[in-house]
Write a structure and sequence with these properties.
The protein is α/β, with parallel strands linked by helices and 420 residues long. It folds into 3 domains: 3-169, Rossmann fold (3-Layer(aba) Sandwich), CATH 3.40.50; 178-266, Rossmann fold, CATH 3.40.50; 275-409, Rossmann fold. The chain is 37% helix and 17% strand. It is built from 16 helices and 14 strands. The strands form 3 sheets. A 6-stranded mixed sheet has the order 2-3-1-4-5-6, with helices on both faces. Strands 8-7-9-10 form a 4-stranded parallel sheet, sandwiched between helices. Helix 11 (310-323) runs parallel beside helix 13. It starts with 6 loop residues before the first strand and ends in an 11-residue tail after the last helix.
Length: 420
């Protein structure tokens, strides 16, 4: 399982509740520095670990949410960004205290639809009171575990609670293209090699699709855009599917027969990590943008920006040329905060998301979807501005529910009110 498919588990709570001790107990290693001094953990600390019968996980130890002062505010911001990236939250309390800070965290998890459970730590100093457990279970309906990171050597109760809460978040993602194939079907993968291509290797979505074809006993043919026409002439029968880099859409669409299904790496990744149905509805909204509208471009990872950068340069230029108007673009990389209120954006465009989990991609878009802001994806937007959107999404219309897992998980209204 690749890095992007690991289950991210964030530990949050007040200072000195023993979050770092719990990470060390769960991993069996001294990952985080432990001290009786409140505020020892300043920046999020990450540690990978394997949970049998669940998934590979990344535990994220965070600063206390009750930290104060200018530095404390920055630490709180880091903790908030860690929560945004999480698939599961572990809310750590102690001394039977579940007050305003904990209530705010639990409310935040519920609003984000982030699965969580509660650990009452330091039971060797003060056990969990039956009344506290009953109140928390009745209010939140989540597991509540009484534990001592200092004294309990057996972490089974923690792991069992994590399995119970994490199974939905760690569920096997839908196939990229395998459900479109039969054994022996050929798939032509079109992979441009340009200034954005990493030296000596393929980008992750290309590798993932190649592996998915092989896993489903398909036959993959890999070529650059200039070779597509010749390869198609040499094939005795057309390929079952052509998957191309979105930037080569126009060139590839011009030579692939109309009866051969065509799509892109970005689109099949969006289908897997969705909200795919929201992308299908939101992408055409680019046609109705007004002069000066603000567009947000979300990049899942930070990277060196070149003149050929798809999100920063090519895509904005293509969108403005397609619309015949000028827009204001904001770009957000990695876990950086969105610079403006949600309501100021007329459109949001998410990258393929190869370096983040499905829940992270959906959680990032959830505030916009709930506000009725249309959302799209790099590949689908490129298809729209090149005039082939209907063609490259046609093969998914009868299968959209399989890949649009986000609409259900996020509790999104399938018929949202769209602005503008």
């Amino acid at each position: 399982m690749g890095k992007e498919n690991k289950l991210h588990v964030v530990l949050v709570g007040r200072r000195n509740n023993g979050k770092s001790s719990l990470v060390n107990a769960l991993t069996g290693q001294e990952v985080s520095i432990v001290s009786d001094t409140p505020g020892t953990t300043t920046d999020p600390v990450r540690r990978g670990y394997e949970i049998p019968d669940l998934a590979p996980v990344v535990f994220i130890d965070t600063a206390g949410v009750d930290d104060s002062g200018p530095l404390g505010d920055k630490r709180a911001g880091s903790t908030a960004r860690a929560i945004e990236q999480a698939d599961v939250a572990l809310l750590v309390i102690a001394g039977n205290r579940f007050e305003a800070p904990e209530e705010r965290l639990a409310s935040d998890f519920i609003a984000r639809e982030l699965p969580f459970f509660i650990v009452h730590n330091k039971r060797d100093e003060e056990p969990l009171a039956p009344g506290t457990r009953e109140r928390l279970v009745a209010r939140y309906g989540v597991p509540v575990v009484d534990f001592s990171a200092a004294r309990d050597g057996d972490t089974t109760p923690l792991v069992e609670a994590l399995r119970e809460v994490g199974r939905e978040a760690a569920g096997r993602p839908p196939s990229l293209v395998g459900d479109l194939l039969g054994p022996g079907d050929r798939v032509l993968l079109v992979v441009p090699v340009d200034t954005e291509a990493p030296a000596g290797r393929l980008i992750l979505p290309q590798v993932q699709v190649l592996r998915d074809v092989l896993d489903h006993r398909g036959v993959a043919v890999v070529a650059g855009p200039d070779e597509v026409e010749g390869i198609l002439r040499e094939m005795a029968t057309p390929p079952r599917l052509v998957v191309t880099d979105s930037q080569a859409f126009a060139r590839v669409a011009a030579v692939v027969p109309a009866n051969v299904p065509l799509t892109s790496f970005s689109i099949v990744l969006a289908r897997q990590k969705g909200p795919f149905e929201e992308y299908l509805r939101g992408t055409p909204r680019v046609d109705t943008l007004l002069e000066g509208d603000r567009v947000l471009v979300l990049e899942a990872c930070s990277h060196h920006v070149t003149g050929d950068d798809i999100g920063r340069h090519k895509l904005p230029a293509w969108i403005e040329r397609h619309a015949g108007k000028s827009f204001r673009f904001d770009f957000v990389a990695g876990r950086d905060p969105v610079p403006r209120p949600v309501e100021e954006y007329a459109l949001v465009i998410q990258c393929g998301g190869c370096m983040i989990t499905a829940r992270q991609a959906r959680a990032r878009l959830l505030p916009f979807i709930r506000a009725g802001i249309p959302v799209s994806n790099y590949g689908m937007m490129i298809a729209r501005v090149t005039g082939i959107f209907d063609r490259v999404t046609a093969l998914f219309h009868d299968r959209g529910g399989e890949g649009a897992r986000g609409d259900h998980i996020l509790g999104v209204n399938p018929n949202p009110i769209v602005k503008g």
